[in-house]
Each structure stands twice: as C-alpha cells, then as structure tokens.
Design brief:
heterodimer, A: about 110 residues, about 0% helix, globular, B: 7-stranded mixed β-sheet, 4-stranded antiparallel β-sheet
C-alpha cells in the first residue's frame, strides 16, 4: 500500500527567508502524481503545486518549487521569500491516475516577522 | 461563485442522532469524494463517486452512507452518530481524465461536525 510521510510536524521561518518542507512516499508504481496542499486557519484546502512522476523537471509556481527525487521517493517543497500569509498546515499527497489522494500527516509552518 | 460548496459549515449534535452534510460542485466534474480530517489533522478518503456510481469505499462504518442524486451532488448521511465521528468532513471533486494531471481535486471548505 502507498504511504506518505512528513517527518516535520512543525517548521518555522522568518519573513523573506526560505524554508523547505520534507515529504517521502512509498509506492511500487511508476506513474503517479504528487501534490502539496496548503490548509490555512480558514480550513480551506488549497492546491499549491503538483508534479507528474514521468516529468524529470521540477515543478515551480511563483515562490513555490519542489525537489522531486523519484529514485529516492522524495518530494520536498521549497518556499522562497516567505510571507506571513504562508503560515498554514502543508500536506503532501500522492495519487495514482484517477484514484484517491493519500495524504501525509502535515507540517505546520509558522512565519515570523 | 464557489466551485465546491458544502453545507452546513458547522454541525453540533447529540450522540445517537442522524445528520446529513450536502455537497455541490459547479465545475462540471465527473468524480466526487468525501474525506475525513480527524483531530490530529490527518486526512483520509472515505468515499468516491464517478458519474453517480460508488467507486471507492474505504472500510467506513455502514452508519455512513453517501448518496449522489446527480454527478454535481454528493451528500453524506450519518446515522446513530458517535463521539468518534467528531471531525472535519471535506468534499472534493475532480474531472476523471485517465492519466492526466488535470485530474486535480478541488476541495470544499469543510464541515466541522461536533458530536456531544
């Protein structure tokens, strides 16, 4: 069975600095998709970034980028120029084709001014 | 316009009661999901429907029954509520395109259920 592990329950960063959130997963599949979702205090689940496993190039979305290491089954999220509004729970998720999302346990990110 | 809407946002009820949570999506998606987020923030799939057909049922107690009157709606009925059912329930939807990264799941704002 596929599993997703986020080993950092909490992280903190100062405004304008860079922070990296870790995620590892376990799967025997070769084709799958990986996601980072953000959940602010409002509770809404917001997609931050996605990565197709067949693509070697790391995905980027403005200040958010990933380091996808397929052989190591690692999918970390880098947030550059951190802003106060980035404070939230961040969930790493795995999905194969049209199947369900399998989530990690989340990392709470605090941003200090 | 809200893409995936859930009602109510908050639900407080007594043990033993029966309650429903409604979900509607206006994205034209074929697939809808229910996820449960427990008190430790862990999110887990409960059900998935594709074009009104149940395709995922993750060993959820049969007190939970999803109902999909059409592909834009997926409601969750819970009978004989227990203390352990207290959680946040999220509805999500996606366009089921096989092998496509466009199959992004969009989430509703969640329903916080508190069973007293």
């Amino acid at each position: 069975a596929q599993t997703v592990t986020q080993s950092q329950p909490e992280m903190s960063v100062q405004e304008a600095e860079t922070v990296t959130l870790s995620c590892t997963y376990d799967t025997s599949e070769s084709d799958y998709y990986l996601f980072w979702y953000k959940q602010p205090p409002s509770r809404q689940m917001i997609l931050v970034i996605r990565q197709e496993a067949y693509k070697q190039q790391n995905a980027t979305e403005n200040r958010f980028s990933v380091n996808f290491q397929k052989a190591a089954k690692s999918f970390s999220l880098k947030i550059s120029d951190s802003q106060l509004g980035d404070a939230a729970m961040y969930f790493c998720a795995y999905r194969r084709d049209t199947d369900k999302l399998i989530f990690g346990t989340g990392t709470r990110l605090q941003v200090f001014p | 316009d809200t893409a995936v809407s859930q009602t109510p946002k908050y639900l407080v009820t007594q043990m033993g009661n029966d309650k429903s949570i409604k979900c509607e999506q206006n994205l034209g998606h074929d697939t809808m999901y229910w996820y449960k987020q427990d008190s430790k923030k862990f999110l887990k799939i409960m059900f998935s429907y594709n074009n009104k057909e149940l395709i995922i049922n993750e060993t959820v107690p049969n007190r939970f029954s999803p109902k999909s009157p059409d592909k834009a709606h997926l409601n969750l009925h819970i009978n004989s509520l227990e203390l352990g059912d207290s959680a946040v329930y999220f509805c999500a939807s996606s366009q089921a395109m096989m092998g496509s990264s466009l199959n992004i799941q969009y989430f509703g704002a969640g329903t916080r259920l508190s069973v007293l």
